[in-house]
Amino acid sequence: MSSLMDAVRAGRIAEVVNLLDGMTDSERRLCVPELKALRKELGADRWSERGRRVLPSLHLAGAACQTGAAAVATWVGATDFLWAPASPKRLIDILADRDLDWIADVTHRLARRPTSARVPFELMTGLVQLSACPVPTTDAYVQGWLMHVSGDWARVGSLADRLRQEPRLAELVAALFEIDDIGQTFGWVAGDGRNSWPASLTRLAEEGALDRKSLLDGCVARLLRGGRPADVRVFLRLLQALAPTTEEQRERVADWTALAADAASPVAAYAQTLLAGLAVTGELPPRRLAEMSEAVLFRPEKTLVRAQLVLLGKVLAQDASGADTLLPALSQALGHPDSEMQERAVKLVERHASKVSEQGVRDELSAAAEQLSPVLRSRVAEALGVVREAAQEYEEILPPVPMPVRLAPAPPSAAELAEEVGALLAAGDDVSAFERTLDGLVRHAHSDPDTLRRALEPVASRLPWSAADTVHPNDFYGHRHLELVLAAVLRKTPPESYHAPLQDPLSVGGCVHSPLGRAFNARIWEIARRVRADPPPFLLSTPTWHTGLIEPEVLVDRLDVYRAADVRVIAADFAQALLRVRRQDRAASVAAAERAAALDTPEGTRLAQWLTADGPALPTARRRVAGPRVLLEFGELDELQRDFPPDFHPLGRPVTVYGDRWHCYHWDGGLRPHWSALLPERPELIAVRLLRDLSDIAIDNDRGAAEILPRLAESGGEAGPALHLGVAYGLGARHEEDRLAAVDAVLVLAARGQLDAERLGTDLGELVGSGAVKPSRLVESVRTAAATGASATVWEILRHTLPALLADQSGERPATPPRGLPDLLAVAADCAERSGARGDVPHLSRTADRRGSSRLLAQARRLRSTLVAEVAA
Hints:
This is DUF6493 family protein. It comes from Streptomyces cinnabarinus. It is a single chain. This protein is mainly α. Among the domains are: about 1-130, no CATH class; about 285-385; about 415-610, no CATH class; about 680-810, no CATH class. It is built from 47 helices and two strands. It has a two-stranded antiparallel ribbon. Helix 6 runs parallel beside helix 8 (about 120-130) and helix 14 (about 210-225) runs antiparallel to helix 15. It is flat, with a radius of gyration of 37 Å.
């Protein structure tokens, strides 16, 4: 045994083999503990020169000395030996004297290991041949086989020749269709041309080496199951290579229909092509074609919908007897979001409505036409011979003005508060939950700090700093504000640690966000310091409403309680309360100011002055353009720099687009929701500091910055140029969730009567012209907004956007139209038709007068005819 271990430690693998050959099973088992100990010893040293020398012999000896199949498979497939294993040939030789059933067991255990274990295929296939066991069809084995057969070493003869030599070819090919996510490997090795996998498998099926029906069924089943694009792509290529015959197509009509309805676009298009061939030759019954058409016309892809409408037109032109069965499927196309698809469907109704014999079909199409614009709706009614009621006056549908939600009071017990603290730490930065929880911590720290600490200890035990005796407030960087207050309540932060200036990078950086972060952090810092030493009975700045606003009467009541109890005010907390108090209701402000002045305290006097001062004013703004980016700069606001703590002064200082961005620590966006509640009556001061972030979601394809737009739109202040420009960027964002947030902001502003459609439309025209916003993305946003019933609002925006985009299209040598402009014109025309808009759009007529029949010109003419309909009448 000592000789074996000496040889293993020295890495003399040939000697190890000779020694193992002369040992009995019992002698080998006695070596296992020392081999395991050596393996553990090499754990941290496996990549060293010693490890590379010793590991192959250790790998081989461990496989030979263990007797259980599971133990051997675990040892052989261990990742410890991944970079320095014994050769597969030596492992096979050392295991060859075992029982064949035992070897088969090891083989299948190795094959069941994950592909990340990287068990050599040569080892698995050698053991399969040795034991004559059934071939494993696991992920690791099949992927190893794919790589093995396709590898550079095997470039002798064609791929088909190498596959013919595989004795278990049928089982392995069948496994390709069963393994999830194999498309990445299969697609990578599949290749193109005559020597590719699809072409080779097809050739083998023609020769009879593989069953063609099994291949077709496997492809169809795999595509029906769906999966990642790589999976779909490679099996579609195989199906196309097999080229189903007409008989094979007829046998699988139900499968093609299901693929056309639900599969990825390339697969659906292929299935649609097969079904179209059957339909045109009369081999697809009208009922089946109608079923397929309803499914395809429901899909959003215009290419599929257009092809299906063309197919229906061909079939109906050949045989009108199927009109009653086929035309109801057009109901789906009449409700398609794209107006071009709607018009194509309307033309089909006009062409074939006379062939309809059943009244129920006419009623169904007439009902579906209610989704259309008035012009198209009239054409359908005329074609069907339906007498329409007099058109009703258009009514804009906007969402109700968002009602403010009152914050619930702080949890009454320490146990309930601890539960909310835990939930907030796990769930993130919900502003309302944060503010009421913060107030609850202060209240309970004042009334019963010992009970609060006992309730919070289990929650804090999951945090990384809980085991430390002391932590410094500066350690709570980022948006870990609740943790800072929590540590103060638990007496983890020594009182003297608050005497130094706040060093959180979120508050001291030179970026455009730092005034927001500095004011917010200063309040939390002071609250944490007071909670540690002298907690007040409650906070002055806790909002009344979810937007962050505080009712003036509520703030006066709080100051009155402070006065009666002789409580020392937290300066930053009171400053935040002033910024949050509602001042737009002048009558309520004057009444509250009188009560505040009567308190005869410095804070009462300051509140009275604040409430009776002139309302919030917007600073002077200046536009700055840098490449495709349009940003705003704001001037100074003196009122935010007088009688406020120093940490709040930067809120009133000028905003420049050329501030230092290299030291910006606000990339994660965790504080944005809190910033909207920092100045709830001044959304412009927030929006102007977020414009670069909002521009990034359109220009640089960033994600998430637009989530604040609906909150800013709901706030109580005036929506000015900064917010409108931010919404414009959001409407052109790369990601759908950002576009939806911008659409929500537009609808909220419109419902509140604060939307400046001309300003927003002009901003959009400028941004599209500069390349900051892509028209195709804007189309999705305005189409979504119009679908809610806000056609007039969307039209008012687009009528100021289109002139900038049509200016280059109306000359003698028009520029290449940006992608998405025809769709944008289509949405504008649809909104104009629905809302009854009239008037003129600069450059529209000259564009419509150009020669040609492109979609851009067709939609321009459609919009012009809508806008001059009264004149034409």
